[in-house]
Amino acid sequence: MKTHPLYPLTFRPQYRDYIWGGEAIATRYNRANTPRPCAESWEISALPGAESIVANGPFEGVGLGRLTEVFGRDLLGAKAPDPATFPFLVKILDAHDRLSVQVHPDAALAEALGCASKHEMWYVLGAEPGAMLWAGIRPEADLARLDEADLLAHPTAEGDVFDVPPGLVHAIGPGNLIYEVQQPSDTTFRVHDWGRGRPTQPEQARRAIRPGLRSEPRHAIDSRRDLRPRLQTPDFSFATLHLRRERTLHTTDQSLMILFCDVGKATIEHDGPHPLTLLPGDSVLLPPRQTIYLQPLAPTRLLLTTL
């Protein structure tokens, strides 16, 4: 497989039809093959059993886990914590109803429980009037019986960014379309589920919760700069790129880069096979040591994730 060099990679989305999903992923991104309802689109994943499949070029049909196994840091970059593990899971979430109140474990607790830690972030792609989410709990909250009154609520608006570290109690409310980047883990401990009857994990959740954690929204602001860092953590860095003109992007040997087209339309020229056209909802993985040439065909906003 290493007989062919790496190049910008696209993937086939995978869908999840959880009970809280809606129609926004299908309608906003013109996707005809989603389930009804569609709660999540897994854009880029190497989790076993949920592996993304390459959709373009010589590696078409190859799983991301297999590419990671073969190329290691040539695909991930020198900063990757484990050359054998793809470092991200990237999703779009459509909350037509409330998600469960939940929390994720940090690395120490995950090791003790035999699972994987989970740090995530949210970028609000769209928010209906009155939409909100919950991030953090009030100081007087009783961990044994958390309910909505104990949660810290935040109205949401397009362009808001939230950091969701391990130990933060959180939930997403209806009317939010969210771009989520997280560590490659599906570990979730439900605190409660709004009376819907799904299982909860109160003991694991109690051990995972860090009561003092908060997450304030980082609001979108107008800026003349076309590239704005929005969030930097030990696990990922996130920025928005407003394309107003042709632009060249480089990835170093330190990290891959994931591009997501939020709005607009742009072409990507690169040294690999076939130029790409980015439309809203499209994701591209840029391996390290790549150079691409972006040409906006309309006002375009891209989301950029690196290590």
Q: How would a textbook summarize the main sheet?
A: 7 strands, antiparallel
> How much of the polypeptide forms β-strand, as a percent range?
35-45%
Can you tell me the residue ranges where pLDDT is under 50 for at least 5 consecutive residues?
A: none
The oligomeric state of the chains shown is single chain
User: End-to-end distance, in Å?
Assistant: 25 Å
Secondary-structure element order, N to C:
EHEEEHHEEHEEEEEEEHEEEEEEE
Tally of alpha and pi helices = 5
Helix percent band: 10-25%
Record field, number of beta strands: 20
- How does the overall form come out from the CA principal axes? globular
Rg (CA only): 19 Å
- Overall pLDDT, averaged? 95
Query: Structural class of the secondary elements?
Result: mainly beta
